[in-house]
Amino acid sequence: xxxxxxxDETLTYLExxxxxxxxxxxxxxxxxxxxxxxxxxxxxxxxxGIDAKADxxxxxxxxxxxxxxx
Length: 70
Prior knowledge:
Blueprint: H1 3-10, H2 17-48, H3 57-68
């Protein structure tokens, strides 16, 4: 199921469909930011020889949210 479809199911019909588009855009921006941050962490670990910050994507996500104040 696509992200937009999940939002459509979650939001009530009383809410504007434009909100779904706004929420989808926010989710996309978050995903892109997280992916860029992960890549930067990976390349930094290759250059410095220091292991990445975490072992799992869930741990990385928590570190990302904490560092970004999310």
